């Protein structure tokens, strides 16, 4: 699968010649033909990182977005009871990859949001089957949301807060594969880094503890199976929570012991950024204690 937003890796854009560009337009046209769609989905998903203007072409071509949504809606009946095959999963994931392209592009991101297209993906995020076709479907759907939050945009955060994205991400953080957990945690991190997002999560004790408990459970799992990139997002989430006064007081009690001692010192040894965040987190909650005692 292509790069997941929020994880390392940059796509390379190389200029296409006229013949290759014409081929792109033909493939986009073929998306609207049910008999040609599967092949067109596959070929376009392969080419999307080498053609920077694919997103506006997809969005503004007659019937194209509708065709992509048809692919998504068509597999809803396979979600429950779980009946998704590898072929069906791969096909819809190719459609999702094209929607991720639209979500990533500055000229189409707002249009994508205004059409509420992310909501079509939520049934995929709500699945619990651990089979490979479902895991691939969840991960690719998370990639679309990750593409939206990767660029700091208040409209994106406001839209997501009006939906059920946080509970969906929290469940994936608890039950998904390591990569799914990492992308879901990245999405929560980006929501927290927005002022409105932080205020939303810290507005009630229930929301704060829902997020902090899942983060703490992830820390406990990492003690057994360390993952540097997942730990990085977890530490950043806790550090951001410590920017809120009420949350900072609560973290004095509920921050996992494994983040207070040297449990992850080997994991953090070569990661200067995460080590700095970790040090700042401990300083913030210690300062809080001293302030209360003073």
Automatic annotation (TrEMBL):
UniProt-listed SUPFAM superfamilies: ARM repeat
Transmembrane parts of this sequence: none
Any one of the GO CC terms: CCR4-NOT complex
Family matches, as InterPro entries: ARM-like (IPR011989), ARM-type_fold (IPR016024), CNOT9 (IPR007216)
GO biological process per UniProt: mRNA catabolic process
Superkingdom in the source lineage: Eukaryota
PANTHER family: CCR4-NOT TRANSCRIPTION COMPLEX SUBUNIT 9
Family: Belongs to the CNOT9 family.
Record protein name field: Cell differentiation protein
């Amino acid at each position: 699968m292509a790069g997941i937003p929020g994880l390392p890796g940059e796509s390379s854009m190389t200029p296409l010649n006229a013949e290759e560009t014409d081929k792109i337009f033909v493939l986009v046209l073929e998306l609207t033909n049910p008999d040609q769609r599967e092949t067109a989905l596959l070929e376009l998903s392969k080419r999307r990182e080498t053609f920077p203007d694919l997103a506006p072409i997809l969005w503004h071509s007659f019937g194209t977005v509708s065709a992509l949504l048809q692919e998504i809606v068509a597999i809803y009946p396979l979600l429950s009871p779980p009946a998704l095959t590898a072929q069906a999963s791969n096909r819809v994931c190719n459609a999702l990859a094209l929607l991720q392209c639209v979500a990533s592009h500055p000229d189409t991101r707002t249009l994508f949001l205004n059409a509420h297209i992310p909501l079509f993906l939520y049934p995929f995020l709500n699945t619990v089957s651990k089979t490979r076709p479902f895991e691939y479907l969840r991960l690719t759907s998370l990639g679309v949301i990750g593409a939206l939050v990767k660029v700091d945009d208040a409209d994106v955060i406001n839209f997501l807060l009006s939906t059920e994205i946080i509970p969906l991400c929290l469940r994936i953080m608890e039950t998904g594969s390591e990569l799914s957990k990492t992308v879901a945690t990245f999405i929560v991190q980006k929501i927290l880094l927005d002022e409105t997002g932080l205020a939303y999560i810290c507005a009630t004790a229930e929301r704060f503890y829902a997020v902090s408990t899942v983060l703490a459970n992830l820390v406990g799992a990492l003690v057994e199976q360390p993952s540097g990139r997942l730990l990085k997002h977890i530490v950043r989430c806790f550090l951001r929570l410590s920017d809120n006064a009420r949350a900072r007081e609560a973290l004095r009690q509920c921050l996992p012991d494994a983040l207070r001692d040297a449990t992850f010192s080997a994991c953090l040894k070569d990661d200067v950024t995460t080590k700095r965040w970790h040090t700042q987190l401990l300083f913030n909650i210690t300062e809080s204690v001293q302030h209360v005692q003073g």
